[in-house]
Prior knowledge:
This protein is mainly α.
Amino acid sequence: MTAHDRTLQGHVDGFLDRHPDGWDHHAWEGLLRDLHSNGVSVSDPADLGRQLEEERLRRWLARLELKGLGPRRADALSRTFGSVWALRQADTDAIATVPTIPRALAERICEAVARA
């Protein structure tokens, strides 16, 4: 991991720690300013936003504490759905199409998402 990547990851982690349930435009702009002032390129804010949303989804899935839903499967869900909002819109059939997610786990994920 490069120094740039470590700086970016540290800022993303801190931002998500402060905003586990999402953020508004003002907070997003603050993160971009902070990254820029620390030498991190913000020339592609859409990509940064995608990375942030995927990491938020991984963390959110970890908080569900579902048996059988470890980091690899959470990564697969994060790459497929990209955000907590998108996963909340998905049904069992859509979740079960994700590689490594068996139907029984997809059903448990849907139930947990509905309760969360």
